[in-house]
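Quick one, tokens below. Sequence please?
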């Protein structure tokens, strides 16, 4: 179960990272009947005006995009709750336009998150964890809509012990998913400023092909994990898997076992520039 949970997290983080550098905006509209496009952006209505600058910037880069407001989705799509309405919207747009990416604008108060239930018998103070991968995993292995709640209770992505209570979750995203988790207009403006600066003012080739990976002993003996299954450094093992997948990038590993992982080393590596961070 531990390995499954780690793989789940790796997929979620990887898909989020990938979108951060491929996201785009377009003219704001509340319909999906436009010509085909590559990116769907979902934002609360209050941020539309702030997005216009980034919309124009991305359009100049030739990326076709479309923006839907969360308010429009909640009023016009079916679903058991707001996250499921958003997922059905993404599915509709994916079916009609074959979008590659989805970008969510706002924190959990503006664009709700999906809390998944993981009662895997490991000691944890947080049986629920957040996963935006829920929005990207549109279909199960049989090609049906993946609700992440096949037993139709109040728990999504549910594990109980060593068994999945919600079956047919493929964990394979149909689209890349990302989020700009801004809490207000000021934070959104700063994010937009940085995106435009990185894509226009800096030499893209100098820094983009670097990847920084950081990891340590996620389940350490100091926290009471003394079983033989916890003898290795889980965070580092997952980081190594990311490095194997992205082997065309110059990797900067920051590992606790090697004494290279610290708050300063992470910031320093990011300041030097990197296209991807895990």
């Amino acid at each position: 179960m531990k390995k499954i949970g780690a793989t789940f997290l790796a997929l979620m983080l990887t898909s989020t990272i990938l979108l951060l550098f491929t996201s785009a905006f377009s003219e704001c509209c509340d319909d999906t009947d436009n010509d085909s496009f590559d990116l769907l952006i979902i934002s609360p209505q209050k941020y539309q005006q702030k997005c216009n600058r980034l919309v124009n910037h991305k359009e100049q880069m030739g990326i076709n995009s479309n923006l839907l407001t969360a308010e429009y989705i909640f009023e016009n799509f079916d679903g058991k709750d707001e996250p499921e309405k958003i997922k059905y919207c993404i599915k509709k747009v994916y079916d009609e336009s074959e979008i590659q990416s989805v970008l969510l604008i706002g924190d959990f108060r503006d664009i709700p998150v999906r809390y998944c239930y993981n009662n895997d018998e490991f000691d944890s103070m947080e049986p629920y964890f957040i996963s935006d991968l829920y929005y990207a995993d549109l279909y199960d292995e049989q090609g049906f809509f993946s609700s992440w709640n096949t037993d139709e209770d109040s728990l999504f992505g549910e594990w109980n012990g060593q068994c999945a209570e919600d079956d047919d979750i493929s964990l394979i995203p149909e689209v890349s998913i990302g989020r700009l988790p801004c809490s207000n207009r000021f934070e959104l403006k700063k994010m937009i400023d940085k995106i435009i600066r990185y894509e226009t003012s800096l030499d893209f080739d100098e820094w983009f092909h670097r990847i920084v990976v950081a990891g340590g002993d996620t389940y350490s003996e100091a926290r009471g994990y003394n079983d033989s299954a916890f003898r290795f450094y889980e965070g580092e093992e997952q980081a190594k898997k990311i490095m194997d997948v992205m082997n065309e990038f110059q990797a900067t590993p920051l590992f606790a076992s090697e004494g290279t992982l610290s708050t300063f080393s992470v910031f320093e590596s990011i300041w030097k520039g990197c296209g991807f961070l895990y």
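Confidence is low (pLDDT under 50) at residues 1-31. The CA atoms of residues 24 and 61 lie 9 Å apart.
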